[in-house]
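Q: Structure for this?
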Amino acid sequence: MSHNVYLYILVMAGVTYLIRMLPLALVKKEITSPFLLSFLYYVPYACLAAMTFPAILFSTSYVASAVIGFAAALLLAFRNKSLVTVAVFACGAVFAAERVIELLM
Amino acid sequence: MNRESFRRGIHDGIPIGLGYLAVAFSFGMLAAAGGLSVGQATLLSLLNLTSAGQAAGLNLIIAGSSYLEMALTQLTINLRYCLMSFSVSQKLERDIAPWHRYLVAYGITDEIFGVTASQKGKVSPWYTYGVMAMAVPGWTLGTALGAVSGSLLPSFMTSALGIALYGMFVAVIIPPARENRAVLAVVLGAMAMSTLFRVIPPLKQVSAGFVIIIVTVATAGIAAAVCPVAGENGKTAGEEEQE
């Protein structure tokens, strides 16, 4: 880490706060551009998907255990389980898979 | 009236605070593993209050990226808060003092926005403060606990917990992708495109933050052009016509 961690944190916090604050402070009327509204609607899904895959495959000790954790998360999310439930069971699946992998090795 | 709004906010904020505690725990652990001190990780969570932005930011800190890349990445990932703030600016009581708007702005997260927007009629800022009074300590404390235990937990535990944050992201994107074809296409497209950036040699040169920016702007932009959203409820024009 060659840069200053506190400076990184301030840059992050500054940008994030401005994004949240400027519309509240300045804009009194509604945005109407259909393209802009649609773009902002899709942004969270696009960015979370891009951040999740393929990075999730390398988030644990083995790619194999990550695949199993990912599969567990997909299955539970597909059944509309809550964020915490999905996260906890994904961890559990990884934990179990890694114990099996280590037994086999 | 203010006191009643505040109390209602606290009530609605309890499940959010508990959820944040759990998720922030895994963030704190990742931060500690990445070389941040407990104080740095906690400060980061207190000042930013956002899961996806912090996860991406942490990767950039660990990679030693430029401050510009950090700023642009946060701008892209957190751009959705802009839309939420627009919405809250319409929702807040009209006659409140300006400083309320600056304070409410700090608390705009997916979940706090969600409960605020679901209130009937105009909302008192004190309601949002009540929710924040539960959510902010949950997020901050969870990070601190995670950062402390990250260094204490054995490696076989931390390996399993490494997937927690991604599991949460999956839980956010899959349910709407099931309901809405355009969201599904965005999710699959974004995953495929970020995979290409990981495997194709010339594209591999692009750093993590810019990959997220490029993929997000490209897939959300194409989806917005091809499949515009009709109303605030997030339905696509096609679905609206079918009804």
